[in-house]
Design brief:
The complex is a heterodimer of chains A (272) and B (205). Chain A is mainly α. In chain A, 47% of the residues lie in helices and 8% in strands. A three-stranded mixed β-sheet of chain A has the order 6-5-8. Chain A has a two-stranded antiparallel sheet with strand order 1-2. In chain A, strands 3-4 form a two-stranded antiparallel ribbon. Classes of the chains: A mainly alpha (272), B mainly alpha (205).
Chain lengths: 272, 205
Amino acid sequence: MIKQAVATTMAAVTLGLAGASALAQGSAAEGIARYREMLQDGNPAELTVARGEELWKTKRGPKNVSLEQCDLGLGAGVIKGAYAQLPRYFPDADQVMDFESRIVWCMVNLQGMDRAAVTKSPYSGAGQRQTDIEALAAFGAEMSRGMPVNISQSHPKERAAFDRGRQAFYMRGGPYDFSCATCHGVTGQRIRLQDLPNISSNKPDADRAFTTWPAYRVSQGALRSMQWRLYDCFRQQRWPELVFLSPTSIDLITFLGVNANGAKMDAPAIKR
Amino acid sequence: MKKQAIFAISGLAVLAGCATYVAPTKEESIQTVKSSFKERGPAKLDRLNQTEIQAVCSDAQMMGKEVPKAQREALEKKTLATIKYPADGKFLGDYKQGERIAQSGVGLQWSDNEKTVNGGNCYACHQLTEAEVSFGNIGPSLKGYGKLRGYNEATLKYTWGKIWNTHAYNLCSQMPRYGDAGILSEAQIKDVMALLLDPNSPVNK
C-alpha cells in the first residue's frame, strides 16, 4: 500500500516537473499532499505499539516486575491518558519529566535496570528493530489518542521548564546562527518543498507539532519519538548532540506541550 | 519603603494562594542549555557560546521587538568592516560549480565528518534557477538576480558582502555567514557568486 503511494507520488512529481516552474511547484505540492493522505491508510507504527504494550506488561529487569505499577502522573499503573499530560512535575524525582524520562525512571526504579545501559542507545539505527523506549513511547501515545493535551503549569518547576524552554527555542547559536525559531517562528515557510510548522505563534501548527509525535517516518522506515525529533532538529541546526532526556530536551517539550494545550493527541502519526 | 513594598507583595501572593515563582534568568536558561549537549564529530561545545549579534537577535525575536536603531546600525557597521573581499580582486568563479554548492545541504552537522565538503544549501531557502522547482521560501527569490540588478562593480561587492556576512546589511537576517563562519571557502563563494552574477548562469536565463 505504501509502495503504491510512493509510486503515485513520484509520478505526480515527475508530471509536475514537465510544466512551468510555478505550475510544477503547485503540482509537486499537491502530489506530496496526496501522498501524505494515502499514507494515512496504514501505519506500521501499529507493530511498534503492540511491542510496547507487551513490554509494559512483561516482568523484566533484576526485580522481575512489569511496568504496570509505573506512575506516569495519573497514579500507579494508569497509562490511559498519561502521555497527553506529560511533561509534568513528579515529587518522587523532584523534577519535571517527559514521557520518555518517566519510562526510564520506572525501568530503573521499579524494574531495577541500570540507567546508563537503558539510555545508552535510545534511538534505533537504520534497519534495526525499534528500541524498548521507542516501543513504549509508541504504546503510551496510542493510549492517549484522541485525548486533549493538558500540560500543567501549576508547579514552579513546571513554569520554570516552560520559561527555560522558551529561551532555548529562541537561542541562536552555532556556525549557522540558527535557533528553533529560525525555521519554526513564521507561518507559511518552507525548506525546499517541506512545510515548516510555526510552533511559537500559530496554534494549529503548534498543536500538530506536539500531537503527532511519536511518528512513523516512511523515509527512514522507523518510528521516531519526540526526544528523537528534537535531537535531529539540533543536528540540522549544526549544534552539538542534544543529550537524551537532558534538561533542555524536557524544557523544550514542555514549551511545545503547553503551546499545544487543548489539542487532541493523534500519535503515533505517519509522516513522509 | 522598598522593603515594605516587597512585604506587601509577598503578602498578596500568599493571600492569593500562589507559591512564589521566580522565573529563571536568561543566564540560568543558557547555562541549562549548555549542560544539555555533548560534543560529537565536528560539532564542539564552543558552538553554544553566542556571538554578540546572536544574543541580541535572539532576545529581539523572543520579545517580538526590533533591535534599537542605534544599536543595530553600530553592529552592522562593525560587521561591514570585517568582510574579506577576494584577494585577487576576482569575484566570479564557475557557475556550474556554484549550482552544485547551491544544491548541497551537507557540512558541519555532527553526522558529517571533517572530510565532508560543505554545501551552501541555497535552495533550502531561495529560488534560483527556472529548472529547480524544489526550493524554499525563507529567503527571497533570486531568479534573474544578475539580470535584474546589473552586472556592475557595486552589485558584485554588495553580493559578496551579503554572502560573506549577511549581518552587515540586515543585522538579524536568518541567513548563515558563509564566509565569516567558515562555511564556504573563498573559491566556493566565487562559484556561488557566478551562479548569481554570470550572464551565462541559468539563474539569469
